[in-house]
């Protein structure tokens, strides 16, 4: 069987096909890089309509990355999907708190989800300037509460949890925070989408 | 803000909503568990139409898991998304070869993608009875070649790479192998989908 084996050629052709299938005039150049990378990751053109990027969100994300901030993820999958070579070259890092013993303990003590507890613990480190939530609506709700109570003020919230219970509502809460955000409206989202958005930001700096 | 924080309750309600939105009569009971878990992971009802499960694929997967086989994944994201507690309790394991030095070396020597090289290296360990490919079409093409040349005969191939170049074609090749398979027809798929399918199989044994 014959197939293209050059990853760069595969990506180039993929992005060409995506360009032919969306209205590129709807986006400014850097927004388009995010939208196209998410479609590349999902083969789902719905994302061209549901990704919402607040004014200044891309600049805020790039500022955080250039300052060597830590990106906090809700799941190990989002953490695994972020390009480590690009992160390292920029001097930024990624951290998922979900498996930490303190998270388990806090979750039991207060009868909250581990996802929620991981946000509480993460809020204590001021290096955590980007939050990328790809799976758990409860993590995003808790993050909103921590912002609203003044515990934390991230530069950027990437809020793309997926699902039928709470995901849509949690993402609507993000819009009210007054913090730069990138979200997917409605039910769709996921860990691969969160990672793709972070990687799109990384590739704006790293080549 | 108020929201449901009990993970079991969230999952239960999610599955109820999914049930209301698909034609459940199209699937036998265990197939439905796979289809619903993938929709739960993506909020994308298209998967009810594009997931194809070959005759005997579920039994083959469960046999492999019960024998304590290793599940090989193409990406760290698929590896990260598989429920480790369930795996451990069953005595099965998961392995992603992509970061291994031998893979890097083989990829350079033969000018093939690291994804392809990871399949070549993985084919040498006979404990590897399930292959779960969520991202790279080239990994799936190479796996098909290794099956066709008799290098390896897995019990089950989960072939759900995503994308615009090669993904659809690679999944069509899987159908011709004569090996039990679970695939997603067309462009859609992804690491979260591969992990969801593996987890659905795990939950048929582990509770």
TrEMBL record, chains A, B:
Q: What range(s) does the Cobalamin biosynthesis precorrin-8X methylmutase CobH/CbiC domain occupy?
A: 9-204
Q: Which superkingdom is the protein from? A: Bacteria
Which first-to-last residue range defines the signal peptide?
none
Pathways involved: Cofactor biosynthesis; adenosylcobalamin biosynthesis
Q: What is its EC number?
A: 5.4.1.-
A GO molecular-function descriptor: precorrin-8X methylmutase activity
Does the keyword section mention Isomerase?
yes
User: What InterPro entries does the record point to?
Assistant: Cbl_synth_CobH/CbiC, CobH/CbiC_sf
UniProt protein name:
Cobalt-precorrin-8X methylmutase CbiC
Which ranges form a coiled coil?
none
> Which species is listed as the source?
Thermoanaerobacter kivui
Q: Which UniProt keywords apply?
A: Cobalamin biosynthesis, Isomerase
Q: Would I find Nucleus among this entry's keywords?
A: no
Q: Name one GO biological process term.
A: cobalamin biosynthetic process
């Amino acid at each position: 069987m014959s197939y293209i084996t050059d990853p760069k050629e595969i990506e180039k052709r993929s992005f060409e096909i995506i360009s032919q299938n969306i209205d590129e005039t709807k986006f400014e150049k850097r927004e388009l890089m995010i939208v196209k990378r998410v479609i590349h990751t999902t083969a789902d053109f719905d994302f061209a309509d549901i990704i919402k990027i607040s004014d200044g969100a891309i600049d805020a994300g790039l500022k955080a990355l250039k300052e060597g901030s830590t990106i906090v993820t809700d799941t190990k999958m989002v953490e695994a999907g972020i390009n480590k070579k690009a992160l390292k070259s920029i001097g930024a890092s990624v951290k998922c708190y979900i498996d930490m013993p303190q998270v388990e303990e806090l979750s039991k003590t207060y009868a909250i989800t581990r996802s929620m507890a991981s946000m509480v613990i993460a809020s204590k480190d001021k290096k955590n300037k980007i939050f990328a939530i790809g799976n758990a609506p409860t993590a995003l709700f808790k993050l909103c509460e921590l912002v609203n109570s003044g515990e934390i003020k991230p530069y950027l919230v990437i809020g793309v949890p997926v699902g039928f219970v709470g995901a849509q509502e949690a993402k609507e809460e993000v819009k009210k925070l007054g913090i730069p955000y990138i979200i997917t409206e409605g039910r769709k989202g996921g860990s691969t989408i969160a990672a793709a958005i972070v990687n799109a930001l990384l590739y704006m700096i790293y080549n």
